[in-house]
Amino acid sequence: MRTVGVEEELLLVDPDTGEPQAQSAAVLALAEADDAHRGLFEKELFGQMLEFATHPQTDMNELGAEIVRCRKEAARLAEESGCTVAALATSPLPVSPTVNVNHRYQWLAEQYGISTREELVCGCHVHVSVESDEEGTAVVDRIRPWLPVLLAISANSPFWQGDDTGYFSYRSQVWDRWPSAGPTELFGSAERYHRRVADMVATGVILDAKMAYFDARLSERYPTVEIRVADVCLHAETAQLLATLARGLVETAAREWRAGVEPVNHSVSMLRLATWRAARTGPEGQLLHPVSMRPVPAEVVVRELIEHIAEALSATGDLQPVLEALAELRRRGTGAQVQRALLEQRGSLRDVVTACVRHTQG
Q1: Contact of 90 with 356, CB cutoff 8 Å
Q2: Mean pLDDT in the chain?
């Protein structure tokens, strides 16, 4: 059974005002002083962000429980530093991000200017184990048209600098400003994948292979495919659902590869349109169908995603839990839907953030 790990980026905010706080250094210092949590949390580009990574898990309930534990521990450490954490993919309130000090982040700030300074966004990265780079490349090629569906399910960033953007996932629009971000063409082999990344680095436009910010890529650190298309999810249960769907997609793609099934040969330009549509309307409107690339109701596309990976989900005992989690997501709404409902009820983005702090910890 394939293992799955999740990396989540959380927003550090003032518990009373909801405004982002550049307190990551203080939180990380507390974490490093505690043997039980040393190495659990990592510095990110901005002082207003905190990242954690779960252990690889085969049981999705165990993975979900670990996400909850990590979020609670992040909140505990943040509170000792005078702030708290919110699983929000963008800050609803205006913010002037503070770039953390190290060589890499300073290079980004100098190379990309204002684009770097506006990249205060929080994502969820799902790592699914693969047997080899060859299998991983085959998986990356075959999951491409389904990734916008994962974005729609995770969408959790409707607000930007105090305004409603009209998007469900505005994070994805900001993230795609990086020149190496977004969907990819078909690679066909691990050799061609690595050659393409090396060619990108050789241009000098990106610093190194870690900056191949593809929506799905071979991990630089682990023997995994890393799916990076999603917003950080407001609720831990949605993050668990996202990870389960990701594993189902990876296993299905690997089976197709072994069976000689060719990947769907959509162009990058069409995949970008599908990603934009998912970011704009989330699961409320229409999505582009992963095969036909024509607009159909989002619920139809989600249903076809489940049909596409049903055999893999059944093999791991995840089919019924996924159906139940999707039903709960429809009832409760995505993070973007919850945030907009909170604003309508309370009339204040400050109150939206403070309510989302509570949602973050369940």
Answers
A1: no
A2: 97
